[in-house]
Amino acid sequence: MKYFIKPIAYLLGIHLAALVLLTLMRVCFYLSVSHMLTPDVASQPALVATAFVRGLWFDNVIACYIMALPLVVGCVAGAFGLVRKWMLRAAGVWFGVWYTLVFMATAGNIPYFVYFSKVLNASIWNWAGYGGTTLGMIFGEPSYYLYIALFVVATALFSVFLWYMRRRALKHWPEVVPPAAYDLKSGRWWLSAGGKLLVGLALCGACFLGIRGRLGYNPIKVSAAYFCSSPVLNNVGVNPMFCLLNSTLDDLRPENRTLHLMPDAEAIRLVQQYYGRTGIKGISPIARRVEPDSQPVRRNVVIVLMESMSAKLMGRFGCKAGLTPCLDSLYSHSLSFANCYSAGNHTNHGLYATLYSFPSIMFRNAMKGSSIPCYTGLPNTLKQAGYSTMFFMTHESQYDNMNAFFRTNGYDEIYAQENYPKSRVVNHFGVPDDYLFSYALPVLRRHAASGKPFFATLLTISNHPPFVVPAEFQTPGLAPEQQIVRYADHCIGQFMQAVSKEPWARNTLFVFLGDHGKLLGQTDAELPESFNHIPLIFHASWLKPAERTQFAGQVDVAPTILGLLRLPYVQNNFGLDLLHDAPRPAAFYTADKMIAARNAHQLFLYNAELKQTYCYNIAPDGRPVPTSFSPAFAPLRQYVFALLQTTEYMVQHGMTRTR
User: Fold this and answer.
1) Beta pairing class for 388-392 and 413-415
2) Mean pLDDT of the chain
3) Does the pLDDT at position 584 exceed 90?
4) Cis omega (within 30 of 0) on the bond before 631?
5) Order of strands across the sheet that contains 612-618
6) Which among 424, 500, 425, 413 is positioned nearest to 456, based on CA atoms?
7) 488-539 per-position pLDDT tens digit
8) pLDDT tens-place string over residues 371-426
9) What is the pLDDT of residue 215?
């Protein structure tokens, strides 16, 4: 009997130890994100306990997946007295490898959630092609060392426990199992083997039920972790490895390769109605010809996309830390928009939407792919109008396929890490913001001297982990993520001070906006506003300063610029001229698999993965108050669904250019 009990006890001991370690790691996760809880949620221990119970539920699912093969082999071999030492050693290796990966995902989920407010998911594979950059980001940011240490400690403790359990199981285990242990001629042996098989069958049945997670028609899904109105507590209960594997498998399914929010024909009809367009045959159903009333003006254009610059970091929008004096001053002396939202929550989304006026379709990177898609956007239009076009980035040009995509879609010159001295590279994201601006200035001066108008785009990076804060900005009392914002703001101020001395500056339109936001303060909604609320500033000596409160998005930047330049062109995108077209009824945006639309009174959110809706009323102080879906939210849902579905249709059918 001991040749059956010992292996089973060995396996069950490992299973329980893994659950204990995963629970302890969940405690670390909770402590790291507890500051994001609203006071009314944090004061309810029952809600926190429920989140941990659901977390144990999901942990058990992953543990049962890992346990399935060793348990089946152990039960069968143990029933017939065929367990050997090498089997227990092989099982130890099996558990060691798989739980190393699980602990890695669990530890890595903590900084990922703190940064993105989402559990680890398939979007991380977007970084798989940039191993050096990704490793540099991970090991170059000191705040991540704590989570690396958590992974190392958990893995080490589990390895020691595996060694102890294997040693205990093999204690007094003979090199050769006595023949009586598998005497096929003994009826008593067969009776014992049959009993063991029944016990083993019950254990295996329990394991496979654990894998399924529930007795219902459908197996467990991530939505089972959602039990309250707090996004943080809902995600405390999700096992990161479970979410990562499921989202990856979902992305591989054919039905998830395209978006299905509503029928294409209905979506197109609605967008035509919203935009007042009938389309142009041979281009797209929403294309139109823009013919200004006056002659074009030859003015330079400089767009600065600021990394992770949420509007909530600015004093104008309530930040009391005084992090952005330069940006706040620029905002008040420019044509600025108070209600602008980024298209997505990744840099590629912001670039794609700002330059080509197409919304981001959730978690996709539209710029990546061996076959480079073609778009008629701002760079192409200005290039056709006789402009020199250039793009400045801090990192390698291959990152996110930028070099190939931008060169295919309107940019003549690309400046990237390959162009800068190695001595100025500070991390795997390349050079800091001050060097980017100082490098770009003489290039702009050279183009201005040619007498030809130019269009330049500058993408900053310093406000992205790993933070490299210059010594003079390491202010006591401010966290590194605040210090780096002060530095990034200072770089913008220095750049504008320098260009103000250039003769071409008076004939140049400067546009400043965030590529996306970042999580700030409490998580008061399933998708916090700070992720997408960004500043949008149009600055020129010939523009009258004013603050506009209409809803705007990154997709509106290019049409507004072309309107200010009074250029005729064929518009084939989803942008509006913020100074001439009718205002949007609402802002719309995405973040990974979350879809959002908001107006002055309501916020509508939809998780396209879980097919779950979240609705909020906007309080007078701007705070979202959870509520249930009602007819008041139907226009918001219809608006954002129609826009994104039409985007999907046009991308899938190659309707992204005008020729």
Assistant:
1) parallel
2) 91
3) yes
4) no
5) 587-591, 594-598, 602-607, 612-618, 624-627
6) 413
7) 999 999 999 999 999 999 999 999 999 999 999 888 899 999 999 999 999 9
8) 788 899 999 999 999 999 999 999 999 888 899 899 989 999 999 999 999 999 99
9) 81
Measured CA to CA in angstroms, residue 189 lies from 101, 172, 174, 180, 192 at distances of 41, 22, 20, 8, 5
CA dihedral 225, 230, 235, 237 (to 10 degrees): -50
Q: Among 482, 397, 352, which residue's Cα sits nearest to residue 133?
A: 397
pLDDT of res. 264: 97
Tokens matching residue 215: 């007795």
Query: What DSSP letter does each residue of 183-225 carry, written as one string?
Result: -TT-HHHHHHHHHHHHHHHHHHHHHHHHHH-SSSSSPP-GGGG
Degrees (nearest 5) of the Cα angle 329, 332, 336? Answer: 120
Q: Is 148 exposed, middle or buried (0-12, 13-18, 19+ CB in 10 A)?
A: middle
CB-neighbour burial class of residue 173 (10 A; exposed 0-12, middle 13-18, buried 19+): middle
Q: What is the token pair recorded at 563?
A: 């309107």
Do 340 and 533 meet the contact criterion of CB atoms below 8 Å apart?
A: yes
CB 649 within 8 A of CB 284: no
pLDDT-based confidence at 184, cuts 50/70/90?
low
Q: How far is CA 600 from the centre of its chain?
A: 26
CB 616 within 8 A of CB 627: yes
Which H helix or E strand runs over 70? helix 45-79
Give the chain's domains with CATH numbers. Answer: 2-254 (no CATH), 264-652 (3.40.720.10)
Fill in the amino acid letter for 468. V
| Model pTM score | 0.88
Spatial distance between the Cα atoms of 233 and 228, rounded to a whole number of angstroms = 8
**Confidence bin at 172 (pLDDT 50/70/90):** low
